[in-house]
Each structure stands twice: as structure tokens, then as C-alpha cells.
Amino acid sequence: MKFGNLARCAGVVGALGALALLVDPALAQEAAAPAADAAAAAPPAAPTPNNGDIAFMYTATCLVLLMTVPGLALFYGGLVRTKNMLSMFMQVFATLCLVAIIWVTYGYSMAFTNGGGLNDFVGGFSKAFLSGVDVNSLAGTFTNGVYIPEYTYICFQMTFACITPALILGAVAERIKFSAVLLFMALWVTFIYFPMAHMVWYWGGPDAFGNAAKAVAEATADKKAEAQAALDAVLADAGLLFKWGALDFAGGTVVHINAGIAGLVGAFVLGKRVGYGKEHLPPHSLTLTMVGAALLWVGWFGFNVGSNLEASSFTGLVFINTFVCTAAAALSWMIVEWIAKGKPSALGLVSGVIAGLVAITPACGFSGVMGSIVLGLIVSPICFVFCSAIKSALGYDDSLDVFGIHGVGGIIGALATGILVNPDLGGTGIPDYISKPGELTTAAYDLTTQLVSQFKGVGVTLLLSGIGSFILFKIVDLLVGLRPVEEKEREGLDITDHGERAYNY
Asked: What is the DSSP string of 208-224?
């Protein structure tokens, strides 16, 4: 009964209040003003990551991990002789574990923070030991207003940092000491990989670009110069190759050219395997190699599609490009080998698969589907020539053709990206976050300008990885030695380095 009376009283008071507002609307305005002022004064709500994007990114991260172990370990392990299979597995596994720890200690900070006076080339140590990162920290994607947790981004990029140095191992397979592997990998990711990742992929993100450009557009005449200076500062806070306009969606320069050139340098520095050119050095298990190649292809969808950093309609383009370019490259290599040698081989087929995956990596987010097929058809014959005729002519022992496939395929893919991004050829065009702040548009495309940018990106990668890797190999050789003595190499690294055998029968 008392509750009913209170309700009726409240109703009467509410009705009288409404009537008063109808009689004098100024009262409503006065009441609304404080609320509006409070809303204006409140900071904008922090963006909330989409759970679907988060799940997508962790799936992609696991797929990239699958590429390294077991994918790359099986692919390389099958290509070496029985006496070195376990050693190859150990080198890949240990490299992954070592780099993962280095990454969260200081690698992520070197790759994805501002490096002060060296910011064009490398980041700093503001996030060393993941300082300042917590469960609420966010990382931007390539869409305005869309974010993922920073831990998610750290994990995804960590898998890239782990697989890249592991690729080098194929070039020096069967003749490098385990201790040398560990020391070289620690040095190489520090002085080569982290700076390359910074130069290509470090930038402020779409919202930083858009907000600064919007401030310029809205600034009054007396504030225009100040706003423009702020925009210039945002644009300048990026890696050198990013500022040059070099396009690399998922790692053509950072991963494949980088590792391929390091592998070539390593092959020259270490010299040829004992018996190379005199003895038959066949793969011990092409079955395992084909299984590894299949796992690499599956995992590569995480590598490329995950680089979009969100699950959107755009990821479909990246997915299909990765699929069809690889298929075209596999068929192309098979046909070329069939013509050249009279028979198509399983090793040739999977070599074409890897060549196609490498070539499409920088272009997968920029090329049209038909352009991706053309790229796949072109890359395999070129890589085939480098893995056979040119390697023989130059006389270097790149054990598992890391340079011929990853280095050459990466160069072709990086340069082709500058052509395939052309909207007239079905490409997506070059992203522009400035012209219309807050939304992604397409910038004007000029073939010459973009090819120059791509050549500059390739050139910097060749110089940094080539010269830097040579120096690091020499340092490691001085400190611990690169190769075992001839007797131990003949016995096999499984026994001499690890005291175990891959097979006991």
C-alpha cells in the first residue's frame, strides 16, 4: 500500500515536471546543457577489439608456428642425409625457442617502437621486457578505429621473427656446428631482422594518420602551421622503407630476401660440404619433405592472411591470392622441369609450391587474383634456373636452395608487387589515410614511382643482410668456429653434435 502511494506521488511529480518543460522549453535547454558539457569534456571511449578478430589472429599465429615446427623442420629434415636429420630438427627447434625469448626481451621493442635519432632504421628499448604492455594495451590494424590486443600482435609477429632465421639453416645444412647456430641466430635477429622489420612495418597506424590529417583540415588559419607540423611529425614516425613507400604486405623483404641473402652469404663463408660435387648427396626422405611442404602451404595462410590483422572481407583476397599463385607456381615448376629433364619430380613440385608462396607474400594484399596467377607462372622458371644453372656456374653449395627460392622468389615478388598493385591490372591500389581522414582511400598510382620504391626496398635488404650477415658469420667463426672438423662432418652432426641418431635400425 505504501509503495503504491509512493509510485502515484512520483508519477504526479513527473507529470508536473514534463508540463513545466512544455510551458517553458528554456528549462529543458538549461537542463540539457550541463549534460552536453559533461559529454564534451569526457575523453572518447577506448576502442574495443572485436572478439572475432582476436580469435582469427590467434588462429593465424598458430598456423605460422605450424610452418616452423613441424613444417620447416620436416621440409628441411627430409632433404638432408639420414646422419644429419636429427641435427636439422634440433637447429630449427632451438632457433625458434631462442628467438622467442629474445623477441619478448628486447626484439619487439627494437622492431615496433620509436628509436629516437635512429628511428629510420631501428626502434628503441622503451618496451624492453614488454614494459608498459598489459591486457588493456592495443595495437592498430589497417582499418580506422579497429584494434587488437597488443599481446595478440606481439605473439603474431613473434612467429615471423622465429621462422625467418630458421630459413637460413637450409643454406648451410649438414656443415654448421650447433653452437655456431645458436650464437649466429642471436646476433642475426638483433642486428639484421629487428631493424628490417622496423624499417618496413613500423608506423603510427591509420588513426594517428587520420586524426592528424583531420586536425589540419579543421584548423583555423592561425593554427594551420601548428597542425601541419603535427601531421609531419606523425608521418615521420615510421621506418625508412615505409616512408619511401615500399610495399610488403607479409614479408617479402623482411623475411624471404633477408633470409635468402643471409643463406647465400653463409654458403660462401662456410664453403662446400665434404664430398660436394664428388659424391651423391641425395635427400634421405622426400616423403617427409612433401609432408613438410604441405604443412608449410597450410601454415602460410596464417602467414599471409593474418598479416591483415583482422577478419574482414579483404582477407578473402589475400587468401585466394595465396592459394592460386602457389598452385600456378607448382604447375609451372613441374612443367619446366619436365621439359628440361624429361621427368617431373616430387622435389620439383614442392619447390614450385615454396617459390609461389614466397613470391606472393609481399603482393598478396595488393594484387588482383589474375595477377597472382601470372606471378606464380613466372616465378618458378626463374627460380628453377637459379637453383640449377646459375648455382652450378657460380659453384656455391646452397644445400637446400634457400637463396634460389627464398632470395630470388622474394626479389621477384617484391618487385612484382609494384606492378600488380596497379588498379588497372586488378590491384587494390596504394592505401591513403590522409586525403579523407578517418577512412581508407586509394592514392594516385604511378608505375615508375612505385617500382623505384620497390627497388630501393630490395636494395636496402640486400645490403643490410648481405654485408651484415658476412660480418656476423666471421665473428661467430672467430668465437666458436663455424664448421666441425672433416671427420666429424663425415660421421654426421646427429652423433657429433647431439650424441643421438634420427633412426636406430
From this structure: HHHHHHHHHHH--GGGH
Could you give the CA distance from residue 468 to residue 458 in angstroms, rounded to a whole number? 15
pLDDT tens digit sequence for 302-321: 999 999 999 999 999 999 99
Distance CA 133, CA 416 (A): 37
What are the CB-based long-range contacts (under 8 Å, 24+) for 456-459? 456/241, 456/244, 456/246, 457/200, 457/241, 457/244, 457/246, 457/248, 457/253, 457/414, 458/253, 458/257, 458/411, 458/414, 458/415
* pLDDT for position 440: 85
> Is the torsion defined by CA of 202, 208, 209, 210 positive or negative?
positive
Domain residue ranges in the chain: 51-203+238-498
DSSP string, 219-239: --GGGHHHHHHHHHHHHHSS-
Query: Alpha-carbon distance 38 to 47, whole Å?
Result: 20
Q: How far, in Å, are 368, 376, 495 from residue 328 at the CA level?
A: 14, 5, 41
Given the C-alpha cell 537542463, which residue does it identify? 31
Please state, for a pLDDT cut of 90, what percent of the chain lies above it: 89
**pLDDT attached to residue 439:** 84
- End-to-end Cα distance, the chain: 92
Determine the average pLDDT of the residues in 60-68. Answer: 98
B/e letters for 123-137, b = 16+ CB within 10 Å, e = fewer, are: bbeebbebeebeeeb
Residue 210 contacts residue 142 (beta carbons within 8 Å): no
Joined together, the cell numbers standing for residue 270 give 662456410
Cβ within 8 Å of residue 311, ≥6 positions away: 50, 52, 53, 56
pLDDT band at 4 (very low <50, low <70, confident <90, very high): very low
- Homologous superfamily in CATH for domain 51-203+238-498: Ammonium transporter AmtB like domains (1.10.3430.10)
- Given a contact cutoff of 8 angstroms between Cβ atoms, the answer to whether 361 and 394 are in contact is no
Residue 31 vs residues 36, 200, 240, 447: alpha-carbon distances, Å: 9, 53, 53, 60
Compute CA distances 4 → 8, 9, 11, 14, 90, whole Å.
Answer: 6, 9, 11, 15, 79
Cell 635468402 belongs to 260
* Maximal CA-CA distance, the chain: 106
Q: Can you give the pLDDT at residue 46?
A: 74
The H or E element that residue 475 is part of is helix 447-479
pLDDT tens per residue, range 146-183: 999 999 999 999 999 999 999 999 999 999 999 999 99
Q: What is the mean pLDDT of the chain?
A: 92
Nearest in space to 460 (alpha carbons), one of 111, 109, 171, 200: 200
Beta carbons of 412 and 399 less than 8 angstroms apart: no
How far, in whole angstroms, is CA 348 from its chain's centroid? 26
